[in-house]
Amino acid sequence: MDFEEMQAIQKELREKYGEKWEKLCPENGVHLLLWMMDEVGDVIRKQGLEEPEVRRHFVEEMCDVMMYFNDLMNCFGISSDELAEQYRAKHRRNMTRR
To answer: Which uninterrupted H or E stretch holds 32?
Structure first.
């Protein structure tokens, strides 16, 4: 699954729950970021990843993080192409570090 598909899935959820969820706009971006950080905390607290059920829940929490990440991308109008371009540029810069 690529970011375009993930963003489409997030938009589908937003359409379904839009009246219940906070509006996606730059002014609310900080709230999304805080919710995402809460999910990151859930990921950090997972221990015992060698156990299948713990690992499944860990991956599920990672999905929660990715869902908020995609909401943030949608909130600020960041396309998957723009993200990929910057990702590649950052990789090139990191490859030249000493």
So the answer is: helix 29-44
**Those residues with Cβ within 8 angstroms of residue 68's Cβ, 6 or more apart along the chain or in another chain:** 32, 33, 35, 36, 39
DSSP string covering 34-92: HHHHHHHHHHHT---TTSHHHHHHHHHHHHHHHHHHHHHHHHTT--HHHHHHHHHHHHH
Contacts of 42 (CB under 8 A, 6+ apart): 61, 64
Conformation bin of residue 88: beta by default, left when phi > 0, alpha when psi is -120 to 50: alpha
pTM comes to 0.86
The rounded mean pLDDT for the chain is 92
Choose among 65, 77, 83, 62: nearest CA to 24. 77
| Cβ–Cβ < 8 Å for 25, 10 | no
Report the C-alpha gap between 50 and 17 in whole angstroms. Answer: 35
